[in-house]
Amino acid sequence: MRYLVNRILQSILLLWLSTVAVFGLVHAMPGGVLAAFANNPMLTEAAKKALIRDLGLDRPLITQYFSWLGAVLQGDLGRSYNTGQQVIRLIGAHLPPTLELSFASFAFALVLSLVIGVVSATRRFSWLDYALTFLAYLGVSMPVFWFAVMLILVFSITWPIFPVQGYNNLSNPSLLSNLHHLVLPAITLTVFFVARWSRYVRANVLEVLGQDYVRTAHAKGQTRSKVIVRHVLRNALIPFVTVFALDVGSVIGGATITETIFAWPGMGRLFYDSLTYRDYPVIMGILLISAAVVIVANLLADLAYTVLDPRIQLA
Which CATH class is domain 88-308? Predict the structure, then answer.
């Protein structure tokens, strides 16, 4: 229980440091916050002074930070410079597409990674292991944007099976249409994660296969599949959980390249557009939420360790 309390306190500290980093990063950008309005021909010197006063930029930086932090703690992330909408509502509107895409990608990637990693490890140095290793390294080294474009070229242009771009939300009465738009971006992210995760699973499974308790389980007459599922895979997943938790934050934060190429209106596309227009309140909101997701995911990963390995106790 003490460990859990300490981890929660550490997470709160990390979250506070994240607010400092996000606020400092945005204000350290060339041109500062006013860079978003620099190209506006209507911005006279008098209007600029009024804008500085309205945004509170005439106050000391530390005062600006605590004013912004106080608003964040009340759920107010400010308003978009580009659209005038509240940032929290803007993010809320773009979060469901990203959750849909990430859930589909993570579900398929997790299953495929476990299967490929275990098969590759249990058939070490076989032709199948070499083939899966080659495909994994190909997936890791292959640029995501190139793979996405190739999918569009083959399955949307050469063979017009799937739509090039677009999105149908889950409220659409046609579930088939929704899945039709989801296939290509989901494949893009799935291949990327499978290539990474399968190598972690293979390495961890190989390490566990050499342990004494695995040989003992075989000596007791347990079947190979039962030994792998009950003894090998469960212990091999412990290091993998950390990698999985970190990637959760990266996807929720937005698969920027994938969502931009496929015009998927998620967090990644919103982040890209916000960078283009220098929409700093939206950028700060997305970065802050992404940091919070990573921190919470790692906290949950620590709790998952105790489920996978009873020897680990939260003292």
Answer: mainly alpha
